[in-house]
Design goal:
This protein is mostly beta strands. The protein has a domain of 96 residues: PH-domain like (Roll). Helix content is 7%, strand content 33%. The chain has 1 helix and 7 strands.
Length: 149
Protein backbone atom coordinates (compact mmCIF):
# COMPACT_ATOMS: atom_id res chain seq x y z
CA UNK A 1 0.00 0.00 0.00
CA UNK A 2 1.32 3.46 -0.91
CA UNK A 3 0.90 6.29 1.56
CA UNK A 4 -0.39 9.48 0.00
CA UNK A 5 1.34 12.73 0.91
CA UNK A 6 -0.87 15.28 2.59
CA UNK A 7 -0.87 18.62 0.88
CA UNK A 8 -1.33 21.76 2.88
CA UNK A 9 -4.05 24.10 1.73
CA UNK A 10 -2.65 27.56 0.81
CA UNK A 11 -4.73 29.12 3.61
CA UNK A 12 -2.56 27.25 6.15
CA UNK A 13 0.42 29.44 5.16
CA UNK A 14 -1.36 32.45 6.65
CA UNK A 15 -1.17 30.96 10.14
CA UNK A 16 1.50 31.33 12.79
CA UNK A 17 3.14 28.40 14.57
CA UNK A 18 5.59 28.75 17.44
CA UNK A 19 8.30 26.12 17.35
CA UNK A 20 8.90 24.52 20.74
CA UNK A 21 5.77 25.97 22.33
CA UNK A 22 4.40 23.20 24.54
CA UNK A 23 0.69 23.86 24.85
CA UNK A 24 -0.22 20.42 26.16
CA UNK A 25 -3.16 18.22 25.23
CA UNK A 26 -5.97 19.85 27.25
CA UNK A 27 -6.67 23.60 27.28
CA UNK A 28 -7.63 25.49 30.44
CA UNK A 29 -10.45 27.21 28.53
CA UNK A 30 -11.91 27.05 25.00
CA UNK A 31 -14.11 29.45 23.06
CA UNK A 32 -15.86 29.19 19.68
CA UNK A 33 -15.80 32.15 17.32
CA UNK A 34 -14.32 33.45 14.09
CA UNK A 35 -10.99 34.86 12.93
CA UNK A 36 -9.60 37.75 10.90
CA UNK A 37 -5.98 37.35 9.90
CA UNK A 38 -4.19 40.41 8.67
CA UNK A 39 -1.02 41.35 6.97
CA UNK A 40 1.64 43.28 8.81
CA UNK A 41 1.93 45.94 6.11
CA UNK A 42 -0.02 49.08 6.98
CA UNK A 43 -0.70 49.67 3.28
CA UNK A 44 -2.30 46.27 2.73
CA UNK A 45 -6.03 45.75 3.03
CA UNK A 46 -5.80 42.00 2.37
CA UNK A 47 -6.14 39.18 4.78
CA UNK A 48 -8.64 36.47 5.55
CA UNK A 49 -11.92 36.53 7.45
CA UNK A 50 -13.42 33.30 8.80
CA UNK A 51 -16.86 33.60 10.34
CA UNK A 52 -18.33 32.17 13.53
CA UNK A 53 -18.44 29.26 14.52
CA UNK A 54 -15.52 28.03 12.42
CA UNK A 55 -12.65 28.83 14.80
CA UNK A 56 -11.78 27.63 18.29
CA UNK A 57 -9.58 29.62 20.68
CA UNK A 58 -7.82 27.46 23.27
CA UNK A 59 -6.05 28.98 26.27
CA UNK A 60 -3.24 26.95 27.84
CA UNK A 61 -0.91 27.72 30.78
CA UNK A 62 1.89 28.88 28.42
CA UNK A 63 0.02 30.38 25.46
CA UNK A 64 -2.92 30.26 23.09
CA UNK A 65 -3.93 28.55 19.88
CA UNK A 66 -6.64 29.38 17.33
CA UNK A 67 -7.59 26.54 15.00
CA UNK A 68 -10.52 24.93 13.19
CA UNK A 69 -13.47 24.17 15.41
CA UNK A 70 -15.50 21.02 14.98
CA UNK A 71 -17.68 22.98 12.52
CA UNK A 72 -14.92 23.54 9.93
CA UNK A 73 -12.44 21.39 8.00
CA UNK A 74 -8.93 21.70 9.47
CA UNK A 75 -7.48 22.53 6.06
CA UNK A 76 -9.65 25.65 5.74
CA UNK A 77 -8.64 27.38 8.99
CA UNK A 78 -5.03 28.42 9.64
CA UNK A 79 -3.53 27.65 13.03
CA UNK A 80 -2.39 30.75 14.91
CA UNK A 81 -0.30 30.29 18.07
CA UNK A 82 1.46 32.61 20.48
CA UNK A 83 3.02 32.33 23.90
CA UNK A 84 1.65 34.87 26.35
CA UNK A 85 5.07 36.52 26.56
CA UNK A 86 5.03 37.24 22.81
CA UNK A 87 1.78 39.20 22.96
CA UNK A 88 2.45 42.92 22.69
CA UNK A 89 -1.25 43.78 22.63
CA UNK A 90 -4.63 42.28 23.44
CA UNK A 91 -7.21 44.86 22.40
CA UNK A 92 -11.02 44.58 22.42
CA UNK A 93 -12.38 45.72 19.05
CA UNK A 94 -15.88 46.33 17.71
CA UNK A 95 -18.95 47.54 19.51
CA UNK A 96 -21.90 45.90 17.77
CA UNK A 97 -22.62 42.82 19.88
CA UNK A 98 -23.13 39.69 17.79
CA UNK A 99 -21.84 41.41 14.68
CA UNK A 100 -18.37 42.82 15.21
CA UNK A 101 -17.10 42.11 18.70
CA UNK A 102 -13.71 40.55 19.11
CA UNK A 103 -10.20 40.69 20.51
CA UNK A 104 -7.15 41.66 18.48
CA UNK A 105 -3.95 39.83 19.40
CA UNK A 106 -0.68 41.40 18.22
CA UNK A 107 2.76 39.89 18.62
CA UNK A 108 5.78 42.03 19.40
CA UNK A 109 8.53 42.72 16.89
CA UNK A 110 6.77 41.31 13.83
CA UNK A 111 3.56 43.33 14.16
CA UNK A 112 1.54 40.23 13.22
CA UNK A 113 -2.05 40.37 14.35
CA UNK A 114 -5.24 38.33 14.38
CA UNK A 115 -8.77 39.15 15.54
CA UNK A 116 -10.83 36.49 17.28
CA UNK A 117 -14.53 37.23 16.71
CA UNK A 118 -16.65 36.26 19.71
CA UNK A 119 -19.91 36.90 21.52
CA UNK A 120 -18.11 36.14 24.83
CA UNK A 121 -15.42 38.80 24.78
CA UNK A 122 -15.71 39.47 28.54
CA UNK A 123 -15.28 35.77 29.34
CA UNK A 124 -12.15 35.54 27.20
CA UNK A 125 -10.72 38.72 28.72
CA UNK A 126 -11.27 37.31 32.22
CA UNK A 127 -9.60 34.00 31.27
CA UNK A 128 -6.63 35.81 29.72
CA UNK A 129 -6.16 37.90 32.86
CA UNK A 130 -6.08 34.74 34.99
CA UNK A 131 -3.13 33.66 32.80
CA UNK A 132 -1.33 36.94 33.57
CA UNK A 133 -2.06 38.57 30.20
CA UNK A 134 -2.58 42.33 30.15
CA UNK A 135 -5.79 43.20 28.29
CA UNK A 136 -6.67 46.76 27.36
CA UNK A 137 -9.93 47.85 29.04
CA UNK A 138 -10.79 50.26 26.21
CA UNK A 139 -12.89 48.94 23.33
CA UNK A 140 -11.56 50.23 20.03
CA UNK A 141 -13.78 50.87 17.03
CA UNK A 142 -13.32 48.25 14.34
CA UNK A 143 -11.56 49.72 11.29
CA UNK A 144 -12.77 47.68 8.33
CA UNK A 145 -10.07 48.88 5.91
CA UNK A 146 -7.27 48.72 8.46
CA UNK A 147 -8.25 46.34 11.29
CA UNK A 148 -4.64 46.09 12.49
CA UNK A 149 -4.69 49.75 13.49
Amino acid sequence: MVAMATRRHPIQRLGRRVEGLDLGPVPDASFIGGMRLGRSSRRSVGGLNITLPMVQLDLFPQGLRMHASRYAPESMVPVWEASYGELAEVQPVGRIRGWSTGLRFRTGGTDQWVIFWTADRDGIMTSLRTHGVSVSPVVQRFQFLDPGR
